[in-house]
Protein 1
Amino acid sequence: MPGDCIVPGCTRQAAQRKGGLCELHAWRRQHGIPDEQPVQDRLPPFARVVESCIQLSDVDSEDDAAWHLAIERLKKSLQRWWIKELAPPAVVAADPREEADKEVGR
Ligand SMILES: [Zn+2]
C-alpha cells in the first residue's frame, strides 16, 4: 500500500508507479516545476479570489516583483471567477453590447 508522497511537507498519498511521488508532484517533475512551490488546493473560484486578496495584502511593500506577481494572481483569479460563475460564454457571446463595443473600437 502506498504511503505519503516523498516530497517533504507533502501529505498527499503517493501514486502508484510514480516513484513515491503523489500525482501532483509527479506531474510537476514531468513539467519542470519545482517541488517547493506551495501546493494550491483546488478552491472554488471565489475562494481563490479571496485568497489572492489576502496574499496581496501580505506582500512585503518593498518587494515590487512579489507585488506584481500578487496583482497578476488576483487578476487571474477574478477572471476565472468571472468566467466560471458570472458570465457563461453563451450569454457573453449573445450580448449585443459586445458587438457594439467592437464596432466603435472600445
Ligand atoms: Zn506530493
Note: The pocket of zinc ion is lined by residues 5, 7, 10, 12, 21-22, 24-25 (CB under 6 Å).
Protein 2
Amino acid sequence: MKLVNNQNQLTIIFNKALKGKKVQIEPYRNKPDIDQSKKAGGYDYIKSTTIKAEAAAKITKLDTTKLWLETQCDDCTKKDKEFLNGSFFKLKAISWYNPLEKMELRGWYTSTQWTPIKSSYGGRTGGKHSGLDLYAPVGTSCYACVEGFIYDDYTSTSYGKTITIKGKYKGTTYYFFYAHLSSRNVKKNDYVKIGDLIGKTGQSGNANGQAAKMAHLHFEIRTKGTKIGNKANPSNTVIELRKSLITNPEKTEQI
Ligand SMILES: [Zn+2]
C-alpha cells in the first residue's frame, strides 16, 4: 500500500493459479450487491482485469475495507467460483522500490574488457568499491527506494551531485546514497515517498569525462550518516534489490 496523489494505492498480488482468469474487484463496506452495481454499459466495478501472471492488478481508493471477487469468464463454472471463493489475496506493503527501473550492473570498464562484476560491491582490485554501479544512460530517472527525508544533497569532486535519503528498510534506518547525478528534484530536508522521482542520472564528479558507454548510477547503502565508511553491501541488505539485480547483463543491450 502506498500513497498516490493523497490516495492509498493498494497492490493486489494474485495467486499464480488465477492466470488467465478474468476477475473484477470491487470494494465494499457491507454485503456486496452485485446486481445493483450493474450499469447500462457493464458493471460499475472499480477494476476489471485478466490475470496474466502472478502479479498485479492495481486499484486506487480512499480507504480499504473488503474486496469482492467474481469471475467473468464466458465458461465460468461452479468449480471456478468455488475456487475463487476459496482464494486469498496477498496485500503487499511495499517496503522497497528500486532506485532505477532497470537494475543491472554496468559493464565495459576498459576498451578491451567486458567486466560487469567490477560494478558490484567490492568488485574492484583489493575489494574496493563500496557501492553498486548500475547501468544508466545519462538522464535516467532515479526513484526514492524508501520513504524518508533527504538527509543530504552535497556535491563533491568524486561523487558529483548526490542525494542521500534517510529512511527505514524493514525497521532498520539506513542512508541510501545516489551519486554522479545530472539533476536533482529534491533538496535537503525534503520528505519523499517511496517511488518518488528524485533526480536524473549523469556523469558528475569523477565520472565526468568518462565515455557515455560507462554512464551509471553509483548507489550505496550506508548504515550511518557519514560520508566515509559504514557502507553495507546493497545486495546483502535488501532482498528485493538482490532478486532484481542483473549481474550478467547483455553487452549489446548496454548502450
Ligand atoms: Zn561506483
Note: Confidence is low (pLDDT under 50) at residues 28-47, 54-66, 68-72.
